[in-house]
Amino acid sequence: MTASPTPTPTTTENPTATAEAPPASPARPAPARQWWRGPIVPAAVLLVLAILPFSAVEVPILLDGPVNSPGSLQLLALCLVFAGLALGYDLMFGRTGLLSFGHALYVAGGAYGTQLAMTELGLGFFPAVLLALVGGAVAAVLLGAVSLRGLALGGIGFAMVTLAFAEAGSLWVQRNPGGMTGGEEGLPLHTEGVPEAFVGVQNTANVYWLSLGYLVLVAAVVWVAVSRPVGRIWQGIRDNEQRVSVLGYDPFRHKLGVFVLASTLGVLGGAMHLLVTAGVTPRSSTAQFTLTLLVMVVLGGSGTRWGPVIGGVLFTFLDQRLAVLASSELVDGLPEFLHAPLSEPMVILGALFVVAVYVAPGGIASIRRSLSWGPSRRTETKGAER
Amino acid sequence: MSTLVLLTLTGLGLGALYFLIASGLALIFGLMDVLNFAHGAFLTVSAYAAWRTAETFAGTGGLALAALVGTATGALLAIVVELVLIRRLYGRPREQILVTVGLSLAIPALVQAVWGADSRPFPVPEALSGTVGVLGAQVPVSRFVLIVAAGLVLAAVTLFLSRTRYGLIVRAGVENRAMVTALGIDVTRAFTLVFAIGGALAGLAGVLGGLYFGSLSPHQGTSLLVFAFVVVVIGGMGSIPGVALSALAVGLVQQYANYYVDGYGDFAVVVLLAAVVLARPAPRLAGGTA
Question: Does ipTM top 0.85?
């Protein structure tokens, strides 16, 4: 997908316009189709997401209770956190072409780091997050520099070295050194350190808004960064690294920069994950966690503006809801041999993903491009509001 | 002294297991540039197939049959995956990785759905469950089984690569695939064959892994796969002797560090990996690498 003929929309330019405009629709003036590239769509999406906690609408099948019930809000908050994580991960994967299998190390680092800074050092939640961010950034600089040396073996070397680092971290967490990480069980959120406004069922809406704030921050950082010259260099590295270095830019420094930036966003996401799920388990440190981020990004559309967000929300939602579906009466009515596969969401999602790689290689965000203009706008808006 | 002997032989056994997994990975990657993330899933499914067989037929004969069933399962699964999924994606390494990633998520989850998430005891026949005294150390027999099996596999793969026509094609394909294709040789059949061999080795590793650990669980294959990746990176992709040496080094380092540095074997392996990566010459612009 890196060799996709339509380059990623890193600027306000419309990718469809660059690739298809002259033959496909010469009649339509350019400004008319750029309105949704501007701030209108993000602002509308943000507004809808921000007022969701005030809505008591019942959504049958999709949600158990009304939208503003704590259960639904927690699920939605988790979706937003994963959307942010996927968007940050895509900074490496889709924008720069770096395939890291070790992103979970930073997410778990953020979650465990924040938790331990609260319990061991007695810090409040936000200072603890800050400390985790600094620690995560330093770790990312060191480990990123070593991992990028793995590129001597091709892109695969980087993937495997990051994977090995993350696995070491994961095993360390599961080993429960000094009784600090809680081993396989993980740790419950240290609520004493968290401001009261974010603790308890009655405050789920605040946690939701904080998650939304995280997603907005990540989106702002990613979208602004890729529209700047540095974003062009990342894109250049993805498409043709040799050319970038011939032009006088240092690919190593830019790759390390994007690795550190993405990892830091991951650390912050880990802290949010800790808050939303009110605890941390070693699951967030495993290679499988990174792989699910990769699946989200590819499913939504890597290297696109909305793709990772859509993928993150959709995947998380399905992952959570399919588990509920599996225990519902609907499944009980099905033949016996279907019970086992349906009881594990990952079976369905993994299979869906394999199919998606063939059917929609550019992800959900790219389906819009293959449709004609009329319905395409609707797809974009619909996807964004989900 | 006896501790050292025990550690060394256990480390060799672990290295043998890593070699079985990593050699298949390295062959597949060397020839086809496919980083097969589903390799661990092949291992898991084979291990469960072998477990079902060994539960049904007791004794050493049952275990031999189980090893056969496991190896065949791995090979069959690999052939199906290659023919149905990977073949359509030649020349698109990233999509190939993504497809195997999807399988690596779905297959262990399916195994977990069918047989549960808890680890199961692997039936080890009495003949293999004892220990043997070597220089004062009591070494479990299963370690020797692993070492012998890996030695045989190493010999067989080396002979296959050096003495058979297909081995020649595979070796040439690893060196320069474009040239082999240009000479009019059907590389796709070699691809399927290499995938099958890799799957069979993963299957055998699944059975022997069950023997080594005495248990099996749905995600065992995936966690072993990570160490196999480390072995492949250290040993160099596409070089079987390199992979064998690096598998031994990783197995030994892990066991020694686990004992002498208080259970930090996994870290020692990662430190070894980082050292090897840093000691390699700085990345040169190779243009067009995966």
Answer: no
